[in-house]
Design a protein that fits this description.
about 15% strand, 11 helices, 2 domains, Arc Repressor Mutant, subunit A
């Protein structure tokens, strides 16, 4: 089998999707945290084929991909950092990126009802770049990755990556057949999740713009702190997201409250939700 191929029109195996588990997944979409979709897909597909991790990325144009979600079966707490290394340093070396470039025209010709879904295999030994191989495959003890790739709204690729640990070995034909059977569901679930994220992002940016109109003295750092709050982060998460110390994040947050003339997060949220004459 080549290192990538289009999803067959009909699954090669007689594998039937578990209806109860699928229904449970669909019911949770948009109602849980950012990373829940990766965790749920890892749990769903991993109950039928041994898997270690799941990461989901979006790619648009020539810029860096965005981390949509990550899920880990308690192998390493470093997966978010590894994913960040990937999007900031290693993604141009990924074989999946070349597949997406080669298949873009065919993906755009496909209909929404029958999307052009691709699967791409990549082992650590396929990667010549030493740091990429070590950080993303050898250190987390990954034997192989199987990526499901699909174009979203004609412009953005979504990549759902399932990883086998070294204890599992590479994907065999039976494991690949299971992932192929799940692939259409995986693509639709991630599209729905991504759409929900985009709506939430647009709403957050609308509220930040409203806040800046009311208080032009707010700096980019101030807005980044508020953006972190809107994403559901506590002070520690905001500090990690901004690459600063927790004490600095606390200082920025107090400064935002002082500039706005409020005393805490509850008043901030009330201010964000309150319409103004510019809306």
């Amino acid at each position: 089998m080549t290192n990538y191929w289009p999803l067959p029109p009909q699954p090669a195996s007689g594998f039937d999707l578990p209806l109860t588990q699928v229904t449970a997944l669909l019911q949770k979409l948009g109602l849980s945290g950012r990373h829940a979709v990766a965790e749920d897909l890892l749990r769903l597909v991993g109950s039928h084929v041994p898997l270690a991790q799941c990461t989901i990325f979006s790619y648009e144009g020539q810029g860096r991909p965005r981390i949509v979600a990550v899920g880990d079966r308690a192998r390493t707490e470093a997966l978010p950092r590894i994913s960040q290394d990937y999007v900031s340093r290693f993604y141009p070396l990924d074989g999946s990126v070349r597949v997406m470039q080669a298949e873009l025209a065919a993906a755009r010709r496909a209909s929404a009802a029958s999307p052009h879904i691709l699967l791409h295999r990549q082992k650590g030994e396929d990667i010549a770049h030493r740091e990429y191989r070590e950080i993303c495959y050898e250190l987390p003890q990954v034997a192989e990755r199987l990526a499901i790739l699909a174009l979203y709204e004609g412009e953005r690729w979504l990549s759902v990556n399932f990883y086998r640990g070294v204890e599992h070995g590479p994907f065999d034909d039976a494991a690949i057949a299971v992932v192929e059977a799940f692939a259409p569901l995986v693509v639709q679930a991630v599209r729905l999740h991504f759409t929900g994220q985009a709506v939430n992002h647009d709403l957050a940016e609308l509220m930040l713009a409203r806040l800046l109109r009311r208080c032009p003295a707010l700096t980019k750092r101030d807005l980044d702190v508020v953006r972190g709050l809107l994403s559901g982060h506590a002070t520690e998460g905001i500090a990690d997201r901004m690459g600063i110390e927790v004490s600095s994040a606390q200082t920025y947050l107090k400064r935002v409250y002082r500039k706005l003339g409020i005393s805490g997060q509850r008043e901030l949220l009330g201010l964000l939700m309150e319409p103004d004459t510019g809306d």
